[in-house]
TrEMBL record:
Alphabetized Pfam families for the sequence: FAD_binding_8, Ferric_reduct, NAD_binding_6
Transmembrane regions: 33-55, 89-112, 141-159, 180-203, 218-236, 248-265, 521-547, 559-586
Name this protein carries in UniProt: FAD-binding FR-type domain-containing protein
Species annotation: Linum tenue
InterPro entries: FAD-bd_8, FAD-bd_FR_type, Fe3_Rdtase_TM_dom, Fe_red_NAD-bd_6, FNR_nucleotide-bd, RBOH/FRE
UniProt keyword annotation of Acetylation present: no
CDD domains: NOX_Duox_like_FAD_NADP
Amino acid sequence: MMWVLLPTNTYKHKWLPKLKSRFSSNYFGKQGVMMLIFTFPPLLVAVLSCVYLHLAAKLKPTAKKSDDEEKETRVLATWRKPMLVKGPLGIVTGIELAFLVMFVVLLFWSLFTYFSSSFKSIDISLKNGIRWQLKLDLGGLWLGLVGNICLTLLFFPVARGSAVLQFFGLTSEGSIKYHIWLGHAVMTFFTAHGICYIVYWALMGQMSQTLKWSRSEISNVAGEISLLAGLGLWATTFPRIRRKMFELFFYTHYLYIVFVVFFVFHVGFTYACYMLPGFYLFLVDRYLRFLQSRRHVRLLSARILPAAGQTLELSFSKSPGLKYSPTSVLFLNVPGISKLQWHPFTVTSNSSLETDELSVVIKGEGKWTKKLYEMVSSSAAADHHFDVSVEGPYGPASTDFLRHETLVMISGGSGIAPFISIIRDLIFTSSHLQLKTPRLILISSFKTTADLAMLHLLLPITAASSAATANLRLTIEAYITREKQAAATSPFHNNNVRTKWFKPSPTHAPISPILGPTASWLWLAAVVSSSFLAFLVIIGILTGYYIYPEGKKHGEAGFPMALTAFLYMLVLCACVAAASSGAFLWNKRKSGRDQTIQIRNVEGATPTAGGSPAGGGAVYEMTEELESLPLRTIEEATNLHYGVRPNLRRGSTGVMVSGPAGLRHEAAAICSSGLADDSLQFESISFSW
């Protein structure tokens, strides 16, 4: 990538001047070519990734993999084994470790290149005097430049719907740790950058520089404001603070707006183009999420587990064209609890098995989730509709569970949620596609017997899939860690699971794809490319007919750099908003008729229980029959263990882990050791938002 090549003398002193002299013009400004050099290549990769994902979805391979492809898969699985388990970085695979080492080498090489060349010049030109003060001045500059390399990549992992992540086989959930690593690196370098300059100004008696806002050069005040916003954000990101005061962490994260805006004011828009591609894709994704969340979605039903576990499954209406992969994540906002807070939950339904519904499992483990459980389970819920907004779902572009002969799924508590979606996906595969599915071993750890009610959620509310479970080779090993012995009666018969059906509101709509069901990736490519082209054209006109002529009037002072940055940012946001809104409204108009028909069908099909009249009340409540075929199947497949933790020292073809950090670290340590088979493939599922 070209922005990584900046420290090389060949690129900096030979090729860049040639490109500037050949292509720069007043129309785009003196630094216009730099804007294209550092923004066009990554945005082109993003557009081509969209096209690739669209074609990959249309041309899914159906033939069995060849021996060479199987060999490549085994080699890749070896690289995906955990190499680091415990420590500040968490679980790190071989591939992640290799790229991490290369990135760290790049940072140190950049520092060495900057420091060695500049310090050598100072030593030659100055024999004494203020030599070390100048080194401190330049050292602060080089620390800031290296921090910009980290900032360049900071926003790529948090663009949830970005094609770049899925092109490289990543998910937004799995990429959060990269954002955390990069964030710590950015703030470390930028803090050192700021400290160096403050110390330098103090030693030189130039503390007035802290209040300098230059017209045409670096703005110190803007840099200080950006750094303070970053420090305020950074202080709440450490694990202990984030877990104990999540709301503080959530709200202070909005300081990224202040951080980015004043960073651009600090260095100017042209130099900020180093970080523009990642932020540009994040901005497009963020605005599309904003458009999706403006309309409330229709809540169909809620399966409410016993109060001891405070767990419920919410089912929403969705358009049949919305497709998603297992282990996808949906973000929920309930204005009745908080208008600003968004929380991620694993989607447990299967888009092919349940074509009109999308379900998520929520366990009451914090203030927000406990409040939601109280609202849904209370009898007063019948007096009003639930307003819920969503963003997503987001998940992997594709999954291939059939490559395993045996799939071991290890969960702790609510960590069972991702595996519910996998089990339902394999139910559809075995019953509708008539394909052989792997043997499933679900190892789940629960605190009390009451938590076993979560196993009720392995199957959908509807009994249509009951017969499909007969072909599913499922074994459940359930461990009750805080109870020593079994109760007199079966725990599956003691837990009454209530189901509430909600009457639809005419203002609520099914969850639907943001950019349409059939060509969403192509629409995203069109939004990115058209908005960027419009941005280039508008700033070209703005520069050629306003900024450049006004700058000439002021002579050497030129046009204010901060005002130029503000106008460019304003045009950038306007172009993204216009292109995204146009694509969203076009697809919304096309899908509006289908959604209206679907809502009418759902209104007429709302179930009743106990003879309740179809028009009375907003909520209908019923209790599931505990002796139904699905529950008998689950009970027969479950082996209960009391007073012990799972013994994870066993080999397997595929292992997936979801739950507390200790459980994931233990499984990762075993998978990376010699205790497991060489063909084992490990994957950890962890929410770090």
